[in-house]
Every structure is written in structure tokens, then in C-alpha cells.
Amino acid sequence: MVKGANIALRELSETVGGVLVRLTWSSDSGDGDADVSVLLLNASGKVRGDADFFFYNNPDAPDGSVQLLGKPPAADGNEDRISLDLSAMPPDVERVAIAASRYGGARFGDLHDLRLTLSDAAGEELLGFSIDDAGAESAFVFGEIYRRAGEWRFRAIGQGYESGLAGLATDFGIDIDDEGEDDTTESDTAESDTAESGVEVREPGKPLVDAVPAPAPVTEPVVVATVPGPARRPRTARKKVTLPKVAKKSLAEHDSWKPARLFPVPSLKNDREREARATSVLLSVMAQVPEFGRRLTAAFGAPAGRMETFTEVSLPHGDAPKRPDGVIRVERAGKLWTALVETKTNGNPLKPEQVQDYVDIATRRGYEAVITLSNDVALEGSPLIEIKIDRRRKHKVSLWHLSWAEVTHQARMLIRHEGVGNAAHAWVLHELLHYLEHGNSGCHGFQNMGPSWVPVRNAIDEETLGQGDRRAVDVVESWERLVRQVCLRLGGELGQKVLPVRRGRRTTDPDARRVALADQLCHDGRLNAELRIEGTRGVLAITADLRTGKLRTSVDVPAPEQGYPLSKAKRLLRRLSDAPADVHVETLVEEGTGPRGTLERLRPEPADLLPGDGARITGFRLSLFKSMGNTRGNAETSFIRSIDEAVDRFVNGVVTPLERRPSRRSQRAEQDRAKDAWAGAI
């Protein structure tokens, strides 16, 4: 579509009661990001109240009409998804504005391939609208869905605001409260300016937990949706229940006493038992914990409503009935949404013919979706299962894949960071998480680098691997799956979004990109990845050198703009006072290479970080090295286990101390030391 064009949704599809909106972009550096928002507007083009503004701290509507699904880890960090249930939209809502904003002085002109894509509930793309004239704007209205003569239409807008989110929000009747940088003001604002819907207001990019403390405050205003009226009354956030990481002291007399579990796992003996138990456990928790069930099904186009789940259902198909592992049904306003579930555990692959049968059954019976669930991770542009669609049938069935790693991630996010409605639900989720993480459950996520791993590693060591070798592409695909699983696991631990960074334009064909990476692997023998952790300033780089058998985790830290070179080096070492002694520090200069050394050597001699030729210091590169595992599976000596250990050690030992804000006392002490040094120089 072109800017200003509009079209009726019924002309594109017969089933547009629910739609999925995707906002995508890319950047040369790979770290371009934006926050999406949705505004429900009345006939006058204004919000009706606080609850009509949806953003990162108010992500969904109680009636299920709007849900911000966030940035999927499988989308390389440059995509945001929104689910809209138009059939549940209040009758006095005439327009739904879809927008995005950047913060910290960033502009949309720095991004490429700005695009809005609208799909139906089955995942079939209906329309697309690209924006190619972005410049100094820091907020954009991509488009709007509006009512006309009783039907929903879409209009491509592409209107930008140089005044940012504040200017955009003001146009739609929202007041903006600018939050100062004083600590007291931040605390007071966080408590009082909380939406009535029970969401906590925070700064864009500010972490929700203390695992990775926030960087210096940004200047973008905090947005609080208000409308003109009586004086504002005190508002408090809806309380959510989370479980502490440290359990209470056990009352057991001996360590051999094992606590009773809601979902026992030691008795599981074969794959069939594992699949049946895992399906029943997961589906029952989805039905009993609404926040968890809604979190998993919203991305598949399911409405918000009463959910019931079933296992071992027999459905007629040809000469013999078929038995999908599970069925999910959601009822809303007398309408049913149904999905068939096919489960695999313990690394077993999905069977294409089995999934095809379920798609055919769903099509014939008018069901909406088939969901596959396994330890595998779907790659962008490469579906796990290829199925045939009967185009003669009007009814469409969407095929979705869910990894056990994603299920574990969502459960951990809810019980550790975001909270659920009551303590019983939190305990049930805790038991589910214990079950999923137990070795006998078979739900451990991606845990095998594939049959090509050992031959490729040996061929690189012997220098016999040539470009164009299909085995190298297989290894690159396995590496991509592993990196995405690391993002899920790390994000669940920190309570932050952790997304892979991809350099270059988004429009590059995924298969062509993997072939190019495979050729690079053949050339230099390295696998590379970059992760961006929300709330941190640097990009976490991971390098696996198959020639030397070494893993390197690193992050680049920019040097402060002001201060003497020695002061910059001392300040960095003080921030790393609790970091491992074997952390390697390299000074980054404008041209050439700078000095380097371990913290153990540099702590007593910080001047060793200063370049001898007086070159200007631009930053510091911090790295940790570790021996790489060799085996392809999940044993103690496996490659996957060594990656997890390397990332965890680097994040806990380097990234977390770097992002921790110094206390006021330490800040004053640093200022006093600077004054003393200045006085001594005079």
C-alpha cells in the first residue's frame, strides 16, 4: 500500500475478527530498536481514558481486544507484534492507531525497511505498508484500523513526530508527565503515576528488576495516560505474586528426603510416557493459570476467554481415527477457537505425515490452528514441517510451532519477574517449571548440534572443509537455534528482553544469509553471535573458535567523554572490583590497537591501560575465555553446555557489575578523589 491509501479488511479475507500486526525495521549496526504502542480512539479522535493507551507497561486489554506480544527472540530483535481482536473491540471505539517511538535521542531516519504487515488469525499476510521517508522523527503512526459503515478498514498513515512520543500522545488527548532525574522524584513518580489498569510506569529501556541495573537516566518522558477532568486521585498498582529465587529453609531431617511434587517425573520410562505426561501437565496449567495460558495462545490468534484443554481426543479421519496429543478450546461471546496439539519430547522430531493429518482434520472440522511442540526451534523463513494446503477450502488453518524453551521462558518470566494473580497460581507455575527443567521430563529444549557437528569440527581442524559444503550450513542453523535458546534462558533469568542482533538489512533472504555465514565458517573456523540485553549499553558478543577450541565472550564499553585517561582507566577498574581476575581488558583507540592485560595484573597498575603514544582512548573491550566443549549433545563436555556456562559467567561477573549504578556515597568519594588529584596537580 502507499501512504494515504485505505482498504476494507473484508475485501482481503473472510475471517478478520482477529488480526496480527507486525512492525519491522532494521539498522546497519543491528541495535536499532523502538517501542510500539496502540491507542483506542473515539469518534473525536481522542482516547476515552487511561486504559485506552497500550505500551510496554500496559501491554494488554482485560477484554482481549489488544495485546502487545513483544519482540519474539526468533525475529533477530527488529520486529514487534500486536494482536487485535476486532470482534471484542468496544462499540464506542472508532479508530485503532498503531504507532512506535524511539528514545534517548534516536530517530527513525537511522532505521531501514520500516514496514507494517497485517495478517489474519491464520497467519496469512493480508497487506503491507512500507515507510521510506523517515527522517528526524522519533515517533511514528504507522497506520490505523477504523470503522466505516459498520465494517473495519485499514488506512496507511506514515505520519511522524519530531517531538517524539510526547507530541504523538498529546495529539490523541494524553497528558505527559516529565520525570526528573532526582532519585526521590523517580520513586514518587513510579508509585503515584501508575495506570488504573494495574501497570507500573517506567522509563523506556529501564529494567524492571535489579539483576541488570539500569544505565544513566534517559531524557525521554515517562508517559502516563490521563484525560481532562477532576483532580487526580492516588492510584496504586495491582499487586502481583512472584516467588523468591531463594527457597525457605527445608524442614527435612536429611538431604535424602525429597519434597512431594505436583508433577512427579522419576517414574517416566519411555518417550510415549514422556509425551503424554508433558502434554497433560502443560495443558492443565494453561487452563488453570489464566495469565500463563493467555501468554502462550495470544500469539496464535486465540481470543481472550474461558479456556479448557483436553488430551488423547479421538477424531475420525479416513479408515482409522487419529489421536492428537491435545486440544485447546477457548470460548468467547459464544464462539469457539480450537487448536490441535502435537507434542514431541526428548529431542524426537515431528513427523510431517502426522502433522499433515491434523491439519486436514482441523480444516474439515472448522478448527483454527494446529500447534506443534518440541525441543526444536523454528528458524526464520524455514518452517519445521512442510504441509500441503487445500486451496479449494475457504476455511484456513494456521500451523504454529512452540519450543519447550519458550514455554519454560514464559513460566519463569511470570513467577520470577512479572507475577500472577494469586499465590496458588504462582506455586503451580513453580511446579511446572521444576517439571520442565527435570532431566527425565524430556522438555529440556534444543540440546543437540546435529550429526554434522563432529564432521565439520574435524574438517576445520584438518583444513579440509570447503565453501559450499552443506554440512557447514547445518552447523550454522544449529548455532542459530542455540543462540535463540540462550536468549530465552538468559531473558528468563534476568527478567529482561534478550534478543539476537543481526547486522545489515532485514530484507536479506534468510537462506542466503546462512549460506554466506557457512562460507565464512569454512574460511575462518569461527561461529559468531551478538546479543542485546535490555537495559544494558553494550552488545554481548560470543565467538566460538573451532580451530583453537576457545570460547570468547566480550562487550565493548565506551570511555567517558570527560576526564583524564588515567581517571578513565581507574574508574573502569573500580566498577569491575568484583569481576573475575582473569577478565581480559583491551584499550580501544582511534587507530591501531591499544594495550591489554588481565584484571589481576591491571588492578595494581591501572596506568598499564594507557597507550604509550598518547592516542585518544575511545573505549575498552572486556573479554572472558573458556575452553570449548566438543560433543554435540548435552553432556558435561558438550559444546552447548560450555556456551551456557560461558555466557552465565560473563553476564554475572562482568555485565552486571558494569551496569550497577554507584551509590551516592561512592559517587561522592569519587568526586573527592578527583578534587584531591586536581589539587595535587596544581
Summarize the structure in short.
Helix content is 28%, strand content 24%. It is of the alpha+beta class.
Give a written overview of the molecule.
The chain is of the alpha+beta class. 28% of the residues lie in helices and 24% in strands. It contains 14 helices and 25 strands. The protein has a 7-stranded antiparallel β-sheet with strand order 19-20-21-22-25-23-24. Strand 23 and strand 24 form a beta hairpin. The longest helix is centred in the last third of the chain and has 25 residues. It is globular. The C terminus is likely disordered.
Gross morphology is: globular
Largest sheet: 7 strands, antiparallel
Radius of gyration: 26 Å
Report the helical percentage. Answer: 25-40%
Count the beta strands. 25
What count of helical segments does DSSP give? 14
Structural class: alpha+beta
Beta-strand residue percentage: 15-25%
**Spatial separation of the terminal alpha carbons:** 67 Å
Average predicted confidence as pLDDT: 82
Low-confidence stretches: 178-238, 663-667, 673-682
Which strand order do you get reading across the main beta sheet? 19-20-21-22-25-23-24
